[in-house]
Write a structure and sequence with these properties.
Isoleucyl-tRNA Synthetase, Domain 1; 4-stranded antiparallel sheet; 18 helices; binds 5'-O-[(L-methionyl)-sulphamoyl]adenosine
Length: about 525
Amino acid sequence: MPACTFYTTAIDYTNAPPHIGHAYEKVLTDVLARFERLRRRPVYYLTGVDQHGQKVQQSAEKEGLAPLEFAERCTAKFLDLWKTLDVQFDGWAATTHPLHKQTVQRILQRLFDAGQLYKQRHNGFYSVRQEQFLTDKERNEAGEFGPEWGQVVELEEENWYFRLSDHRDWLLGFIDSHPHFIVPAFRRTELRNAVEKLSGDLCISRPKARLSWGIELPFDSGFVTYVWFDALINYISFAGYLADPDSGLPEFRSLWPARAQVIGKDILIPAHGIYWSIMLHALGFPDDEIPTLLVHGWWNISGAKMSKSLGNTVDPAALAERYGVTALRYYLMADISTGRDADFSEERLRMRFNDELANNVGNLLNRTLNMAHRYRQGVLRRTGCQDADLVSLAGTEAPAAVAEYTKAMEQFEVDAALEAAVRLARTCNQLIEASAPWKLAKDPTLAERLDAVLYHLAESIRIIAVLLVPVLPEAARGILAQLNCPTDPALSDAGWGVLPDGHSLGAPVPLFPRLEAPPAPAD
Ligand code: MSP
């Protein structure tokens, strides 16, 4: 078994700036990786950029730049954004890296030697935008290639093909015998239906005359490989597959198989579900080393697809600037259910932050620290008080929240995990209202109850902060610092009763100031 939990994400195209959809995928995977770190499990998070291909070549030409220069300029925007958003990855897969090229060529040579690749002349319609030949299946009801294919030209050319259809029956059997191959389960049925219809092989090359910005085929220098035989291989090339021992890359066996490859729904069929699984199989990877595909949904705008051509993309860097990284990460994780689509709305971003962080978690922290300072100089006392509400909080509600959170995170359901933490905060705010510490403070015979209430509130917030670490690393550290607790906790610290008798709390500092709508633009 691998020594590490290994997560990888789809690598982003570098022919346009990143948008909120890209940010979602990277933050989601970052949260899963941080959850493993919280559990003190070794984890490796690989992400990167897909830098080759026709679109980069064309965009570079338009700007009068060399393709590498253009790709690196775009790449810098992605790297800046991941830094801004606190996305903490361990490996960076930039497909122009020489070590990646070397592995791609080694893989191509292996498949060539094994008789999995062949050359053939083909005449047909070709979509410049999607970089693929089209068949009659791609025609719409009017018998035409729709606008989604962009410019379509008739082409005749020789190319190299991968014997995809030879593996169709294997893939059907694999899907049937591996229920966890695709998460969520409903996508598995979609994939199975697509594989049933699979016919024909995969074209893997482009003549250099047409596309020079790619990796040369090691056995035919007039061609480069394009898109999938380059991009998909990043998952293993940067994990050390077929690398020389002194390459500086990780030891492949320590990482593979990945616990999950995190991809959007648009690249399940055919890219990952069909091409990638068959590529691994053809390379000799056994069935139990074909990784799970975690297929997330899309962020839309008012139900419509976000796209550069529609001009409705949302810039995550601008949102982070306006509302802060905490609010953006929280919204991206709380307002979508993994696998489903969601509609992006700035109003909902503000609302969820204000309701759940400012008015709930933040308020709980502030009130608790203020009361502890006002009534007890900030010092907590563990008492023998056995009042039913407190026994229930410590013995039932808090452990149940931790269990629900852990189960949800293990199933990649970050929204449900957050809900468990936020619900515990709500319970605590209700406890404040019901127990009215300001009244308890007036009656010396109720001193023990007051101490117990304050202890239970502080202990609950500490647990909530531990649970928030993967999604809101900075804010969670801020809460823990105010509680005078270690700021790099483990999930095992989310058990009840860690704060000792006599523990001194820090001073309250507002962590989640309410978000306001930006002023309406002047007419
Ligand atoms: N370069 C290919 C992937 C190669 S993987 C070996 C690609 N790039 S992409 O930039 O178009 O998309 C990168 C990821 O972002 C994909 O997983 C895609 O699904 C995801 N998203 C793109 N738009 C999205 C939304 N609107 N919402 C959520 N995720 C979206 O595909």
